[in-house]
Design goal:
The chain contains 5 helices and no strands. It is mainly α. The chain has a domain of 65 residues. The longest helix has 59 residues. The chain is elongated and about 115 Å long.
Length: 146
């Protein structure tokens, strides 16, 4: 009985031209919406790609400018002078050169240790709310939690 009611309803819908027109319009509208969503998604992906390529192009331009500046430096008299002093042991007129053996220089050099400030743990004196807030701050900064 239920199937009979459904079939008679479907026959009545498909026999009415207004209902068929509405179904056809809904079908076309849904296809247009789906295709529009695909086009929007593709445009978004292309814009992302264009943006990343523009950024890469800017980075390459900056690297190119840096290389040009390095090349100018290598052609300059200052670079030639420094290279002559370091590699060839040359000096200007009126200057004296003292050649010190590497072993003597290394033996008399002082090792410099980097200054590291030691912090005392103060978390024992803090209550649980202060510890919680500090842990959240560490979490948002990307620091490891203790």
């Amino acid at each position: 009985m239920f199937i009979h009611k459904i079939t008679t309803y479907i026959k009545s819908v498909f026999s009415d031209t207004r209902a068929l027109g509405l179904i056809g319009f809904a079908l076309v509208a849904s296809m247009v919406a789906y295709n529009s969503a695909q086009v929007i998604q593709k445009n978004y992906e292309l814009e992302k790609r264009i943006s990343s390529l523009k950024q890469r192009n800017e980075v390459l331009k900056l690297e190119n400018e840096n290389q040009k500046l390095r090349n100018k430096y290598f052609e300059s008299d200052a670079y030639v002078e420094l290279t002559a002093r370091r590699q060839l042991g040359k000096a200007k007129e009126g200057e004296r050169l003292y050649l010190i053996p590497r072993s003597l220089a290394e033996a008399s050099s002082v090792e410099i240790k980097p200054f590291v400030e030691e912090t005392k743990p103060t978390s024992q004196s803090k209550n649980k709310y202060q510890k919680n807030i500090e842990n959240w701050v560490r979490f948002f900064r990307g620091e490891p939690l203790n």
